[in-house]
Amino acid sequence: MRLISAAKMRSAQNAIGNMDPYRKGLRDIMLSLPRSGACEKIIKPYVTEGKGGGTAVLLVTSNQSLCGSFNVNLVKAFERMELTKDNTTVYAIGRYGFRHLQREGYVCVDLCHLSAHADYDSSVALSKELVEGFMSGRFSKVFMLYPHFKNAVSQPVTLENYLPMDAGFLGADADEEMDYIVEPSPEHMLETLLPMVLRLTLHTMLLDSTVAEHAARSMAMQTASENAEDLIQELSLQYNKLRQQAITSEILDLLGGQTNNN
């Protein structure tokens, strides 16, 4: 299991590495677009927090166990958010989080299939649903709660705003703007790019969570193997001691029998 998880972790890391240039390119385009009143009108719905709507939380756990405290830390982080059950919708990616929060009485949307297979088409469909819920006023906030892959031994729980978006990311606070000629228009580019950025952000998060899960499972299996080896050594030592005591006892019995015969 450790070797399988390590192989899957490297595969997911390669997928993220292949996506990074594309993600950075989108960000550069967003930052370089000239701003106008029409552009600000397009951006405003994405960066303005809704009022009166509920809260949506995209919670990523794993479908399988044997990964240490990976799932427990995520559920505890969700509980620390102190959300009301009647005003919260949980999009649960992973059986552990889905089953736990469903028992607690939260409204949960079952997306457990994405925990094992985070394909881009599914990410696009989920992103569209969340954006439509935010734009329609159903959700005033959308959060992503997921494990971030920092390194092979550290997967910190991360809480991020998905919607409303950060205005700084959209270039609203950029120091300077490049003088590009944009065809057909900056407004048309923004209308196209904003949904693409949201889809890519969500898909990257899912890939990051996949890497973190496999890293946690690989480390847990390595720890389990080391503990098993230590246990084998302790039991072997105990066995040898008992065997030596039995041999010594038999020798003493034989010597005692010879002494009695003499």
Characterization of this structure:
The protein has helices at 2-32, 37-47, 70-80, 95-104, 113-116, 120-135, 186-261; strands at residues 54-60, 88-93, 107-110, 139-147, 157-163. The protein has 262 residues and is an alpha/beta fold. The chain has one domain (2-220): ATP synthase, F1 complex, gamma subunit (Pyruvate Kinase, Chain: A, domain 1), CATH 3.40.1380.10. 61% of the residues lie in helices and 13% in strands. The mean pLDDT is 87.
Write the topology of this structure.
Elements: H1 2-32, H2 37-47, E1 54-60, H3 70-80, E2 88-93, H4 95-104, E3 107-110, H5 113-116, H6 120-135, E4 139-147, E5 157-163, H7 186-261
Parallel strand pairs: 1-2, 1-4, 2-3
Antiparallel strand pairs: 4-5
Helix pairs in contact: 1-7, 2-7, 6-7
Distance between the termini: 64 Å
The CATH topology label is Pyruvate Kinase, Chain: A, domain 1
Major sheet attributes: 5 strands, mixed
Number of domains: 1
**The named CATH superfamily:** ATP synthase, F1 complex, gamma subunit
